[in-house]
## 1
Amino acid sequence: MTDTDAVTRFEAGLADVREAFGSAFGEAADEQSLRAANAKLTGPEGTLTKLMKLMREVPGDRRREFGQAANALKEEVAAAFDGALVALAQAEREAELAAPHIDVSLPGRRPKPGRLHPITRVTIELVDIFTALGFDVAHGPEIDLYEYNFDKLGFPPDHPATDMQDSFFVKSDGARSMLRTHTSTIQVREMLKRKPPLAIVAPGAVYRRDDDITHSPMFFQIEGLLVDEKVSFADLKGVLTRFAQRLFGPDVGVRGRPSYFPFVEPGAEIDISCVFCKPWEGDAARTAACRVCKGTGWLEILGCGMVHPVVFESVGYDPEKYTGFAFGLGIDRIAMLKYGISDIRMLYENDARFLEQIG
Ligand code: PHE
């Protein structure tokens, strides 16, 4: 290859590129084809890149002249490419503005009205049932004294029974405080404030070291307390039967099993007939196959008992004069039974898809 040959080829190359780039950039309909056209010139295998490499073969006395011409052309190409990019973006924007941008024929999006959380709804329902039976509603703080949560309820100091209600402990002003493990703290507070007769229910959040599909470390309880002269276990059974039947229907049966809580004597767990297989309808096979009550026909729903004289002493009531009963139940558990929810955590995930399904 001679030097003159290189000169000729270089000149032809310059002319080719000069002629080609304007139309190549102008014809590109979108950014992608514009970039492809640019790559054909300035990419590693591009015509302009190859031309630059040819420079080595151009005779020394003409190199400067050609070098300048090639560089000028390179700048022209770069400027034209930038210009074409801007023009494309502008054209796109104009097309967007010119196009109709609201389709008035599409159906609108209805805003979804919020509603009360299932826990709140069940709480209201339970409170309604008990206020209709003559109970007042009482509230108390979620962080309360250890003394109110345990000591005044007859838990001996550091008794293993407190392990069943392990919680989070807080130091405030030197007093031993904790996140309450039951709303019985409110019963203590009310008894310290008031004299019998008294009948209260105390709903609220409680905290325990518990976490599985039927237990949450924070859950809701409603506890009841009635104190007067000559209150008997029959009164307790009457109130709880009435309560269960108002909540789940008149056919629901109630039974008690002896149980232990330090603040009651005697104590019991109360079961109601299974509200899923409805044993009162007499279909024994359905009950046998029921996964909720595991074939027993009964569901455990609450703890209760006659208030222990020790509790009355600790709040200054005369245990010779007064008797009373107390009960406590999980609101979450009632919500799960009422709405057929199998995992308690669903109640706390705030997933709208779940909450919308609750009627
Ligand atoms: N406080 C008890 C608990 O949280 C429930 C209960 C209340 C049991 C009243 C008996 C009487 O487990």
Note: The pocket of phenylalanine is lined by residues 182, 184, 223, 261, 264, 267, 303-305, 326-328 (CB under 6 Å).
## 2
Amino acid sequence: MNADLHCHSTASDGLLKPDELAERARNRGIDLLALTDHDGVSALAAMRVAAESRGIGFVDGVEISACWGAIGIHVLGLGIDPQHAGLVAGLQGIRDSRAGRARAMGESLAKAGIDGALEGAMAYAGNPSLLSRTHFARFLVQAGHANDVKNVFQRYLVEGKPGYVEHQWARLEDAVNWIRDSGGQAVVAHPGRYGLTEAEMREFLGTFKDLGGAGIEVVSGAHTPDQNGDFAVWARQFGFLGSRGSDFHGPGESKVDLGKVMALPAGIEPVWNVLMEKAADRVPHPPHSATVLA
Ligand code: AMP
Ligand code: MN
Ligand code: MN
Ligand code: MN
């Protein structure tokens, strides 16, 4: 089973549209795909059609920007209901807050001598209501301030650098509740990316579990192979479901392609087992007459 449960489209900071993502997923032999745009669900309906028409199983997803104390954490919602009112309102609140942050980033970069960054970033945003650091990064590269997106983050867009602005994201408990209330599984995205010490990780995972978190992304395109192994151990310790995702954003930009991450290590229940059971429950059984006619 080649499941890739983490990627982005032009509805957030990805470079491909649903049809292009689905075509790529088919060419990479993906059986089950989740689209997990940052803080929004606007591309899910089109993505489902694009995936299913190519025989690829599809899971409605989202990647919610949240805070655990002062630490930014991304929480994947897998198998959500994209129309659930509480989830929709929560995501809208986060997107609204991104607009003010983007203005502040533009002002901060102007002080550092870079003009027109907000307008420049907007030109790269497929969805004007979702401006991310990635869009600023693409503008800064094009304007010649760094030679690639990775470099530009290190120089301009991480804590302590001119284009970095502190931001209050959703509370971790709210993110988990929106996901659960809409019928989804809350999964910590790329847990190796937060720079937590072992003690902090233990505390964080305990809190996430207590809040109703279901799993962690054991295998991630944002992890080293060693980290994938480490998080397999954490998942077993905490009894978390395990997820697997490339975090693909686009060709040329992401070093890991769709589906090209290692298999989920043994001894961990894959989150897709639960997702597929739920999906099967939701599909109405064919009427009896259809069976007779067939
Ligand atoms: P934001 O949610 O606006 O803070 O932007 C976060 C996004 O920036 C992530 O989802 C990644 O796509 C991208 N990103 C964060 N850190 C880096 C990095 N060091 N190199 C490349 N992309 C990054
Ligand atoms: Mn991103
Ligand atoms: Mn993320
Ligand atoms: Mn992501």
Note: The pocket of manganese (II) ion (ligand 2) is lined by residues 8, 13, 38, 134, 249 (CB under 6 Å).
## 3
Amino acid sequence: MGGMSGFDLVIRGGRVATASDTFDCDVGIRDGRIVALGHDLGAAGEVIDATGRLVLPGGIDSHVHFAQPSGPGVVMADDFESGTRSAAFGGNTTVLPFCLQEKGQSLREAVRLYHAKAEGRCYIDVAFHLIVADPTPQVLGQELPALIKDGYSSFKVFMTYEGLALSDREILEVMAVARETGAIVMVHAENYDAIRFLTDRLERLGQTTPRFHATSRPIPVEREATHRAISLAELVDVPVVIVHVSNREAMEEIRRAQAKGLKVHGETCPQYLMLTEADLDGLGMEGAKYVCSPPPRDPASQQACWEGLQQGVFSLFSSDHCPFRYDDPEGKLTPKGRTSFRWVPNGIPGVATRLPILFSEGVVKDRIDLNRFVALTSTNHAKTYGLYPRKGTIAIGTDADIAIWDPQRKVTITHDLLHDGSDYTPYEGLEVTGWPMLTMVRGRVVMRDGELVGTADHGSFLARSA
Ligand code: URP
Ligand code: ZN
Ligand code: ZN
């Protein structure tokens, strides 16, 4: 094998795992693609020794936010350069950030703007989801169908957040377009009116520390919206992803829908396995570091999220990386000069820690096997969002998007290992076993032994099939 000219690169001696199989073999790469799996592959321009290492499909994180406007006086901590860099350090080879339409803005114009922000500034490959915040007749009738044809085949709708929340009627209109065009709808499921009611009441009582962020959006707020989102999707028969699920009741809503045969996918995130609302309780504003929505819950909810991952209710494990700096006038500490949890920007960083956390807490601690790890962190993302089989597996003909892991390496997570634009990690001091040592995108090494070796012009934009 290898032909006259051999391979550009061979990864030798590693243990390869996909979503279905684990096997010892070498990987031959030519022109950015995997062209051979076997032994004694022959001549190669470069050989990477993977003895004692795992050779995995690169992580695909299908839920990240980069360079997203977040309201006056607040700035997201990562742009495309720092966000994709941090992703590469965390063993990822593709990310799917959001392209946010603002009220009054054309969706086309929003897409153009995000491409301009990303152009030449990505270390790894990128595909965009669209956030539909203003479903005008023009957007529903022309822009959305045209964009889906152009490869933007998934979009997110919000049931909460000022300026983003859609009415049930609007959600149905968006879902109907997805149904017509073969797209998939991601739903942020929290009840907007209930959150506003509870938040106003807490403020009247002077209960405004970050801790009360969780009190303002308790489990019924999420469960009700999850049920409603699923019901709306059932009405128009469209596939949906319920994103960032935090607790058992919402998980059980998804399980019930799946048992009925509805096309409902579930996603959870590291924060719902590792954090609880007690983390919001830090001294002063420290708790703001953990403010995200839905909020982290309690140990029983963490256990429910593990069960969702183990039993397949959740097919997607994403970071929901949505980074803001902490000690920064444009960050979480003194949002707009105020201190109520109401003004703390929602979201936490996590694109670099997603994979080590699930590997260590899941695979090493025997909660999930290695193949489920690959499915949850790579393969299922590619399948759900129209990138498979080009992305998400190790097979002949696929892009050579690979992460090489040392499964035994013990690392204490510190912010300086993550190379993002934030000034903290919610997981500072967490000890993990297993760490990505090398990340390769289409055959080119981007990160090796904790050093960035790629360039920000390598990442390419991926159009996706519906
Ligand atoms: O708090 C969160 N999750 N912020 C990110 C935006 C979103 O809703 O996914
Ligand atoms: Zn959301
Ligand atoms: Zn998000």
Note: The radius of gyration is 21 Å.
## 4
Amino acid sequence: MNFKTLTELHNFYDEASKCDLKKTATQAVFGAGNPESKIVFIGEAPGKKEDELGVPFVGAAGKFLDEMLAEIKMNRSDIYITNTVKYRPTENRDPTDEEKEACKEWLYEELNFIKPKLIVFLGRHAMNTFFPVEKISEVHGKILSKKFLNLDTQNFFALYHPAAALYNGGMRETLMKDFKKIPLFFARQ
Ligand code: URA
């Protein structure tokens, strides 16, 4: 589809969405940030605060993400950030395969509108949408290169989800270490 703006794209998919979560969510949480960015981060699904405000990563995980971005001299206006599933799963449970599938075309179109050089997965739900058999414990911190038929971007980078790492010292340290590799990818371009 040919959308003139990201807002047009989001409104189209929100109206057309058949995702069951739409019935219980306050609103869709659209991706946010710089649509011209060379880097797109993909999370899992909106939480309570995101559902209330309609903005991704505004809760505790988002605060931690901002700290990591600052470590690599970046902020939200340098990146674009979105979620695998655009509606909040009830009780903050994991999104189901059906829910992820229901938002998949929306996500692909969003990515093809931006055409980033690098797509960063925040957690296994985002990663498994593209790489269904890989394990995040094995591929985190590594560039995954693959050409998908319907996607312009070919380089991916998997990270642990900031919410999972927030209160886990070891995982937090690993996530920060992996995060600091992001500028190396762009230095090599
Ligand atoms: N966690 C996510 O994966 N996405 C959000 O928007 C917030 C928390």
Note: The chain has a mean pLDDT of 97.
